[in-house]
TrEMBL record:
Signal peptide: none annotated. Keywords: Flavoprotein, FMN, NAD, NADP, Oxidoreductase. Residues 18-173 form the Nitroreductase domain. Its cofactor is FMN. CDD domains: RutE-like. It is an enzyme of class 1 (oxidoreductase). Its EC number is 1.-.-.-. GO terms for molecular function: oxidoreductase activity. PANTHER family: MALONIC SEMIALDEHYDE REDUCTASE RUTE-RELATED (PTHR43543). It comes from Roseateles aquatilis. This is Putative NADH dehydrogenase/NAD(P)H nitroreductase CDN99_11220. Pfam families: Nitroreductase. It comes from the Bacteria. Belongs to the nitroreductase family. HadB/RutE subfamily.
Length: 196
């Protein structure tokens, strides 16, 4: 893979893409969500551990379960988004390693160190959530990632009795460009990077 993406593709993924707060009333088909995950799952994670778990909240009943956990500023945009993804991670992700990383017994790396397991799962699940945002953009969707929710309430409403725990929320759909604010500044290379 040596080809550089053209300006239009880079625009769709980064330079023209925006985090959306308003949404058009266009539903997303489940097949689109399945295609999205097929892309996301191919992104690299350490030891192929793939700890992210995604709950696609797309029904009125699901949104009603989610609403009490949202901050006031995130309520309307989440209720009007066609889909809200609860990007979570599995605290028992290492149970899948015999299938995901079969050439060595990596499960013991994490069962012997809860701290390493937590750090690995949280880091890699966050990375996978970022893959989801970029993959959604590649499929012509808009995304609105956010914090601003009560994780314990989300876990109680959606993951009670499981080993999953929420990390962040990502609204998905076709964004209403009329509701976009101006792009906020970003740090320049010299403020955010080092060459050594």
């Amino acid at each position: 893979m040596s080809d550089v993406l053209d300006a239009q593709s880079l625009g769709q993924l980064f330079t023209e893409a925006r985090s959306h707060n308003g949404w058009l009333a266009e539903p997303l088909d489940d097949a689109v969500l399945m295609r999205l995950y097929e892309l996301v799952r191919l992104g690299p994670t350490s030891a192929n551990c793939s700890p992210a778990r995604f709950t696609f909240v797309r029904t009125p009943e699901g949104k009603a379960r989610l609403a009490p956990a949202l901050s006031k500023g995130n309520l309307e945009k989440t209720m009007t988004a066609p889909v809200t993804v609860i990007a979570a991670w599995d605290t028992a992700f290492h149970d899948q390693l015999p299938a995901l990383f079969p050439h060595v017994d990596a499960r013991g790396w994490f069962t012997s160190s809860p701290e390493l397991a937590h750090e690995t799962a949280f880091r890699n699940a966050t990375l996978q959530a970022a893959y989801l945002i970029v993959a959604a953009r590649a499929l012509g969707l808009d995304a609105g990632p956010m914090s601003g929710f009560d994780r314990a309430r989300v876990d109680a409403a959606f993951f009670e009795g499981s080993t999953w725990t929420a990390n962040l929320l990502i609204n998905l759909g076709h964004g209403d460009h009329a509701k976009l604010r101006g792009r906020l500044p970003r740090l320049a290379f010299e403020h955010a990077c080092q060459l050594v």
